[in-house]
Amino acid sequence: MLRKCHDNKGAGHLGPTRTIKLLAKQCWWPGMRKDARGYVTQCELCAEGKTPPGKPQGLLQKVVEPMRPWECVAMDFVGELPPSRGHRYIWTILDLFSKQAHFVALPKLPSAEKLADLYVKHVYRLHGCPDKIISDRGVQFTAKFWGKFLQLLGAERNLSSAFHPATNGGVERTQQTLCQFLRMYTNYRQDDWADLLPFAEMAFNGAVHSATGRAPFEIVYGQEVAPFPRLPEWKEGEGQTDKEWPAKIKQGWQNVVEALRETQKKYKLFADRRRREGDKLGEGDLVWLSTKNLKLGFPSKKLAPRYIGPFRVAKRINEVTYELRLPKDLGKVHPVFHCSLLKKYKGTLDSGEQ
């Protein structure tokens, strides 16, 4: 009766409540509601074809907690844009402590070797070696050469999980501000945006950032940088000695650390209102994987399964990120996923399978 009232085409693989009501019209037995709910919960076709209702899984997690300028760096590319002086892409580099950014125009997406050369010319010469570099999973950032280059810098490579760009949310938000600036000032043909990048960088780094309550220039250099040709008025007796100046800057850094922590708490409180805590998964557990970002070869994505699997959890990376054991027929899909793309398997497969 359970198969008839749930699996049958006339029943439609509906949820527990509708299945129970359909059963009640046909028959009754002690514990029928419990049996029906268990049957529907373990139905593998429902698990493959249905998306869980409500808020997405995974509460906001802290990526890094830098303590000084240019200790943790995030980067990404904007493009492809209309040609401007032979350039079509913008390389965005962001310091996650001070929020200072650099915008570099590029003719094309660089190889790992070219990216290393660009980093030395545009970032290393100004700020030295970082401790961590965060990026997405572009071919430049996953290349062995880039990994070796970061080892020489003494930097740890942090890559975002598969199909979850929010890991690199800081630089994504910076790029939104950059594109907003370019929309305001570019001409009708949109072929002068490369000339606007120095002004965009000055405006961004000279403005007070909401996370720190200070301008990036002030955090890094200890003073504000004037965007207009007007000298500041200095009063007598306000000058700093060579010993007081470094102490003032470091005291400012401590204030920034406290401001960033407070801001992260506010961000988490706001973000978690629209999320829910994910399923507690451990090594060896079986999960379904969302097909939202996968190319499976079906004629229509609308009629394709919403989840595939189940696959076994190979490793728990952190509270919301897991590495799966994927079959080879999925190709070069990176096996690390955010829990919002996973759904705990509740079927009856033997624990020795998969």
Describe the structure.
The mean pLDDT is 82. The protein has 354 residues and is of the alpha+beta class. It folds into three domains: 42 residues, no CATH class; 178 residues, Nucleotidyltransferase, domain 5, CATH 3.30.420; 70 residues, Roll (SH3 type barrels), CATH 2.30.30.140. A hairpin with a 4-residue loop joins strand 7 and strand 8. The chain is built from eleven helices and ten strands. It is 36% helix and 15% strand. Helix 8 packs across helix 9. Keywords: Aspartyl protease, DNA integration, DNA recombination, DNA-binding, DNA-directed DNA polymerase, Hydrolase, Magnesium, Metal-binding, Nucleotidyltransferase, Protease, RNA-directed DNA polymerase, Transferase.
Kindly summarize this structure in a few lines.
The chain has 354 residues and is α+β, with helices and mostly antiparallel strands. The chain contains 11 helices and 10 strands. 36% of the residues lie in helices and 15% in strands.
> Largest sheet, described in full?
5 strands, mixed
Mean pLDDT: 82
Termini separation (Å)? 30 Å
What's the architecture of the largest domain, going by CATH? 2-Layer Sandwich
